[in-house]
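Task 17 of the worksheet. Students: predict the tertiary structure of the chain below and write it out as structure tokens. Keep your answer in the requested format; marks are given for formatting as well as content.
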Amino acid sequence: MAVTRTLLLSAAFAAFSLSAVAEVMTVEESVVMDYRPAVARIEAADSATARSRLQGVVSRLSIDEGDVVGAGDLVAVVTDATIAPSISALASRIEGLQAQIRQAEEDLTRNEALFEQGFFPKARLDEQRTNLDVLQRNLSSARSERNALGARQAEGRILAPADAKVTSVNVVEGSVVSPGEVIASFATVNGVVRLSLPERHAAQISEGETFALRLPTRGDDVRTATIVKVYPELRNGELIADATVPGGLDALVGERVDVLAPVGERRAILVPKDYVSTRYGVDFVRVQVGERFVDAPIALAAPLADTEGKYEVLTGLKPGDKIEKPE
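Model answer:
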């Protein structure tokens, strides 16, 4: 029994010792890249508008600002109240012409038989054939006119021009619109982000270059972007460039972002944030001095850890120091 207890205590002490060793790390220098932020704004890679082609009333509106639509999705319906009665009148006219044609064909068939027997004059027969031809042409004209009115009525169905996000809607249901009036505006959703950067950064931006994008309004989220096109003309003193972001970038059109342009490498001491404790506004790490660990004050480069959860230490540590994770 005593032997078993001794073995258990030995195993527990060994596990505790391993755990303690695992909480100690040796400080080493790392190579870090320095970035210079350039303020940029996100623009729509391409913009489009949906316009009315009819004079009429918006009888249906299917979108709102912020909606994402696909190419060909119904945006709105504009109704011209004069088209439906015209189509109805043409439909009645076509039915009347069809009835006249049926009667004329029956009369012509009967009179052709009489003409073969010598009981019907040829001049009357030719006149009936001409009348039948005129009726058929009138029927064809009425059908074409009805098809044209149907096509014009179909122009009232306004469709989304591309896969895009709705940026503005300029009408409401019941609005009276004219031909060419803008119903809604869109920013295309194609995985390309258009950036507007200050002119002074033109020499640092080139096609194929990869850099970091920081989103200040979204918790300083950092994304990687690759330049795919740099436009040769400045716009309002700003450089315009298209970039692709893996996974896309769900941001507002006009939202401010920081383009982190690399300016050089340097060596620095990085410490995991779990090894740093703060008391009364002073940052400490537990450094090994002789056989024990003591709290030593340090100076950090920034109050927040980087994306990897590490602090950069400016003073208070040197390469080779051993530090202990605080309890």
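Marker's comment: The two ends are 34 Å apart (CA to CA). DSSP finds three helices and 20 strands in the chain.
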